[in-house]
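> forwarded from #structure-qc
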């Protein structure tokens, strides 16, 4: 198998990775081979090539159908923004009072990028959608790879007493392409007391 080879190969060609099996394959039967740890290489459009009986050791009725290709795209490196910490003060706000939230955002990706907006909700139990406006927000700016920024939100309204879910959403307008778009939100449960 070749990670990126658009050209038809000849018998005896050496691929990037190979596998063998010891048993015969019965007529009409199939065998699935799994290869892992393949290097993606630089970004761009690639052609994966598989060549069965690549040494041409078995006489077949048709020797021209032993190769198959699959096009794929390697994406360029991207940032990956994640909420790593939420600290509320006080931890149990008083009903109809205010509280403070300190939210830490980290770029866990291999390259820097723009973190867009950080939106927060005083009480939102369900996931927020892209472009939804929180009770407060700020611009994250650019975060280098493996760096963090901490943001403080003050004067947040606690509302009525009871259990609440504070939610933070980095890149809340979903403008940056990231390694994972599923880890941009985090929550902190708290209780508003009378």
């Amino acid at each position: 198998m070749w990670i990126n080879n658009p050209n038809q190969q000849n018998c005896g060609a050496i691929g990037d990775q190979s596998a063998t099996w010891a048993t015969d394959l019965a007529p009409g039967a199939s065998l699935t081979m799994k290869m892992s740890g393949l290097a993606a290489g630089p970004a761009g459009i690639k052609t994966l090539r598989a060549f069965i009986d690549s040494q041409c050791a078995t006489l077949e009725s048709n020797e021209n159908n032993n190769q198959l290709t699959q096009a794929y795209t390697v994406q360029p490196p991207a940032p990956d923004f994640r909420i790593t910490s939420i600290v509320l003060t006080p931890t149990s706000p008083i009903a109809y009072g205010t509280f403070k939230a300190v939210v830490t955002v980290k770029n866990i990706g291999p390259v820097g990028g723009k973190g867009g907006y950080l939106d927060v909700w005083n009480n939102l139990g369900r996931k927020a959608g892209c472009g939804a406006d929180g009770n407060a927000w700020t611009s994250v700016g650019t975060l280098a790879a493996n760096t963090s920024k901490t943001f403080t939100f003050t004067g947040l309204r606690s509302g009525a007493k009871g259990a609440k879910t504070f939610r933070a959403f980095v890149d809340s307008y979903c403008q940056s392409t990231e390694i994972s778009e599923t880890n941009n939100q985090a929550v902190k449960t708290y209780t508003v007391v009378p």
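QC bot note: The mean pLDDT is 93. The radius of gyration is 26 Å.
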